[in-house]
Amino acid sequence: VSDIHYEPYKDYVVVRFRIDGLLRSMYIFNKEEYQLILSKIKLNSNIDITEKRKPQDGKISFEYNKKSYDLRISTMPAVFGEKVVIRILYGNGFNYSIDKLNLTAEQKDKLKYIMKVKSGLIIVNGPTGSGKSTTLYSILQELNKDEVNISSLEDPIEAIIPGINQMNLNKTLNIGFAEGLRCFLRQDPDIIMIGEIRDEETAEMAVRASLTGHKVYSTIHTRDPREVYFRLEDMKVEKYLIRDSLVGIVSQRLIRLLCDNCKTIIDEKNIDGKVIKLYEKCGCNECNFTGYKGRSLVAAIHVIDNEMKEKIKNINNDNSLLSNLEMIKNLKALLINGNISLLDYENFIEVEGLSFEFKKESKL
Q1: What is the pTM of this model?
Q2: What is the Cα–Cα distance from 350 to 187, expressed in whole angstroms?
Q3: Per-residue confidence at 157, pLDDT binned at 50, 70, 90?
Q4: What is the per-residue pLDDT across 241-259, written as a single tens digit (0 to 9) for each?
Q5: Which residues are paired to 85 by β-bridges?
Q6: Arithmetic mean of pLDDT, 160-168
Q7: In sequence order, which residues have a C-beta less than 8 Å from that of residue 285 and are 6 or more positions away?
């Protein structure tokens, strides 16, 4: 569960959990009980218990069964009372590595090449909830060596990694990404991770830092790698500086996996000269009768080498540059292994606008 939603209505309160990216209704109880729960949440997260007319934020940290949890609390006045959303950050439970990211052998090679480059800017892009932080943490985990100084500025810190200097944004003290980055540059860093490039000042400083011998990792919320280039342009970064600083872009999404316990075979298909079994979702106790359990990464990785830097000069006239078409390779591997259904495969390709290349390539 990544988020818990308490939603008050006229006579009752619904509790929904976000599991594998989708909300599911789990509990319904009366409003009297909710008032007690709401008061307890507010007290524990240092939120003003008397204030019910304006949104408030707080946090709770606790240990349970020898595991650390950080809860980010957000309250909001709605028609029938205060809605509460709790985001769960699994503090010390981080155990990801590049090998667990479901990348093809070619993608792993490209990512490792990007990581070896001594300086430059690496951007991970994708919508909210597409696993960008997990990818960045996996990369930092791999680079986390005794001879390297790694500093990260996050909002909020989602997982604590020993050996990395992690710093939270602090709105009260006016510490944003730009201010934090300015501080990091005085701390003799080798590698800097900025949670997100949101404004012109942060963009300019990230680019300047990457051009002065530092390795900078960050995220931008865009649909594809082309938009990363245009977003940096919109943030008033000069074109030649973007080309000179960028060394790699990772574009990613998450796709839900079929539950291994209940998926059923419906057909067989010939894909690339190989007959594979096609599965569809079913539903059982293990997957809460949704047919899905867990999610997997679908990515497109672009190395911005000298050849690509030359091509980028023509980016406005060439739509094939920095596209997401490479995601089809990840999808095809998942389909061949029986991890996703043909319907989910086709829906993903249609929603992400990869239809033309898909019809040409897949022959399904």
Answers
A1: 0.87
A2: 46
A3: confident
A4: 999 999 999 999 999 999 9
A5: 5, 74
A6: 90
A7: none
Average pLDDT in the 188-204 region?
94
Spatial CB neighbours of 172, under 8 Å, sequence gap ≥ 6 = none
What is d(CA 204, CA 151) in angstroms, rounded to the nearest whole number?
Answer: 18
| Residue at 204: amino acid letter | E
**Cβ(83)–Cβ(6) under 8 Å?**
yes
In angstroms, the Cα distances linking 213 to 64, 119, 149, 225, 238 are 43, 5, 13, 23, 19
Q: 56-91 in b/e burial notation, b at 16+ Cβ within 10 A?
A: bebbbeeeeeeeeebbbbbbeeeeebbbbbbbebeb
Give me the DSSP letters along 150-163: EEEEESS--S--TT
In our burial notation (b when 16+ CB lie closer than 10 A, e otherwise), range 19-39 reads bbeeeeeeeeeeeeebeeebe
The single-letter DSSP state of residue 170 is B
Q: Using an 8 Å Cβ cutoff, are 154 and 72 in contact?
A: no
